[in-house]
Amino acid sequence: MENQTAKTEFKTSTGANVVVTAELILKETHYADGDNIAVDCCEMGIVTAKIDGHPDQFGYHKLHKTIDHKAGKIVATIGNLSLIEKNNSLVEAIIDKLKQHPVWIAKQAQIEKNQKEIAKMEAARDSSPGYCRKCGSYCYGDCEAN
Ligand SMILES: [Zn+2]
Fold first, then answer.
1. Distance from the CA of 136 to the center of ligand 1, in angstroms?
2. What's the pLDDT at 146?
3. Cα of 131 to ligand 1 centre, how many Å?
4. Nearest-angstrom CA–CA distance, 3 and 132
5. Is residue 146 classed exposed, middle or buried when 0-12, 13-18 and 19+ CB atoms within 10 A define those classes?
6. Per residue in 62-77, pLDDT tens?
7. Is the dihedral of CA 27, 31, 33, 34 positive or negative?
């Protein structure tokens, strides 16, 4: 399946045009002993911002603590580009759009299913005699005996 991209556009507080691209990677090339092979995958790519008159910026990051700025409340960044709430909601919208892709939805469902199975196995393991969470083996408490 082809990689999917979604774009949005806005202006910085100083009027520079910004084009933000988010990508959902569904196929990547692996180098297998001299052969290039295309492999299906499902990962979010790096968010890119092309800003008129400035170097491209990479990597969407949501701030834990917002910053008050004369242009508005800064809630996230792409590289060195700060995003006020209004522009951040545009970026979140394109990421959310990519997350509507059936392959992404199926992957999330698989992750959820796996987590439930892992929780069930861990519960069974924890209730079996001799298992020790501290050392992760059936030590019957030996790891704490010294
Ligand atoms: Zn132990």
1. 6
2. 67
3. 7
4. 44
5. exposed
6. 999 999 999 899 999 9
7. positive
51, 12 contact by CB (below 8 A): yes
**Residue 143 CA to ligand 1 centre (angstroms):** 4
Q: Domain residues of the chain, as ranges? A: 4-100, 104-144
Residues with CB under 5 A from ligand 1 (ion): 132, 134-135, 139, 143
CA distances 109 to 12, 43, 124, 127, 145, Å, are 37, 14, 23, 28, 43
CB-based contacts of 56, cutoff 8 Å, min separation 6: 48, 49, 50, 79
Angle, CA 72 vertex, CA 69 and CA 75 arms, to 5°:
85
